[in-house]
Amino acid sequence: MVHNSIRKRKREIHKGHCGRILLVAGSEGMMGAAVLSCRSALRSGSGLVQLAVPNELFPVAQAAVPEATCRPRSFSAGDLARYDAVAAGPGLGTDRESVETVRCLLEGYEGNLVLDADALNVIAEPGNHLMDLVRSRKGQTIITPHPGEAGRLLQMPEITGVTDSVRRMDFAKKLAEKTGAVAVLKGADTIVATPGGDSYTNTTGNPGMATGGSGDVLTGMIAGLWGQKQTCEDGGLRRLAAWEAAVCGVFLHGLAGDLAAEELGEYGMIAGDIAEKIPFAIRQILERKPEGRER
To answer: Within 13 Å, how many C-alpha atoms sit on residue 199's CB side?
Structure first.
């Protein structure tokens, strides 16, 4: 499936074809999450990446990821319409300003939106009244919770600690049904479930990826892949569907982790190692001839 979705690029494309991505991430003491997401979006092939962080943290972001640019967290609908994909949540925090930032994205952005980490935590809080906005938004949505965040979204804390694949699949489908989004339930054998009832179980990854920041890398990857255009069999360009971006992001994230584990071993891996192996994972995909028909 992934081999048929990620294709070699046409020689004449420019950075606009490769996606303009906005990452709404980071806060005081949590800029590492924003940096990891940003690097991963770029390593996944994004043409342009902007990071929306508090103004006082611009120097941190620009020193850590010079290939990206920074912008304030004040958005208008016109501002947001420029982006091919937006991701929100890594290191964002759950204060009132973060709640209003997520509300602004849900109400004002009609494109491809990835929600992770603290964006999911503020949505899960009933008093913030954001769940209905997730279900009713006009654009496509992907959510990427770990079991704890999934439990808060479903108000089912028993999800944490469940390892049975059948039960995890059921929880993932419940998430997709409740939110109307493509749901990525992270963990060993990550599951992708769609609102239409389809589901996919990942086959890549290893225990070395159980480290802080690994999920932030995945968020950047999915946003980066979703925002860019892929080459079609007829030579045209297209963007991946939501389920496709989620499946490809999850598979390549695990493959990058496997490549890092081969080099470093599982015990010493950190999230930055996964991000650095993204280009090598994508190269493996491109070097294998696509099979079957394109979906």
So the answer is: 20
